[in-house]
Amino acid sequence: MFEAFKQQCSLVMSASTNFRIKQQSVIEFLTLEGCAPIGIHRRMKAVYGDGCMSVKNVHKWVRLARSCCAGEMSVLDEHRPGRPISVNCDENQGRVDAKIQKNR
Q1: What is the rounded CA–CA span in Å between residue 24 and residue 57?
Q2: Residue boundaries of the structural domains of the chain
Q3: Is the pTM of this model over 0.90?
Q4: Residue 102: which pLDDT band, with cuts at 50, 70 and 90?
Q5: Mapped to the 3 state alphabet, what secondary structure does 26-78 carry?
């Protein structure tokens, strides 16, 4: 049961990450074409609807795209110090399994 839940969460996270990467790529492309951040956001909002990132995040990515040379911006998350690579460990899995068994 826990494995199925973990797999479902992984799929959701993967889909949302891919969606975010697509939006960031669109921002980079439109920035290099010379579009203004608010114009980019309006165009993305028309396509992505409620799934569109905020104007603030569009501005952030436009600034990043402008500071890089054409095509050199990375839309992938870089490893950051202190950020856990995985939260799955035997100790946590044991705690979750125990709580599930207790509440049955």
Answers
A1: 9
A2: 1-71
A3: no
A4: confident
A5: HHHHHHHCCCCHHHHHHHHHHHHHHHCCCHHHHHHHHHHHHHCCCCCCCCCCC
